[in-house]
Amino acid sequence: xxxxxxxxxxxxxxxxFYPPMKIQYQESREQMRLEAELESLxxxxxxxxxxxxxLQTPEGVEEVARESLGLVKxxxxxxxxxxxxxxxxxxxxxxxxxxxxxxxxxxxxxxxxFGVR
Length: 117
Known about the structure:
By secondary structure, the chain is mainly α. The chain has three helices and no strands.
C-alpha cells in the first residue's frame, strides 16, 4: 500500500494540473473540429466554383434549363419517363456542421476524462 504522503502528493498534483490540461484538451478538440469544418467548406467551395464556371457557358445554361426547368427548344418535344420502382427523396444533404470527426478509442477516453461533449 502507498504511504499516505505519496497519495496526498499525487492528489495535489492532479488537482493543480487538471484544470489547465482540461482547457488545453478542449481547445485542441475544438481546433480539430474547426479544421475539419474548414476542409469541408473548402471542398464545397470548389464544387460551387465549378458550378458557377459551368453556368457561365451557353452549354451550362442550356443544361440547367433542360434538366431543372424542363425547357425545350422550339420544335422539340419533351418526353418524361417515370420509373415506378424508383424512390424519390426530399431529404436535404447533410451540412458540413453535421459531419462527425472520426474518433479513436483514445479520444473517447480523453473526452470522458475532460468532459468534452
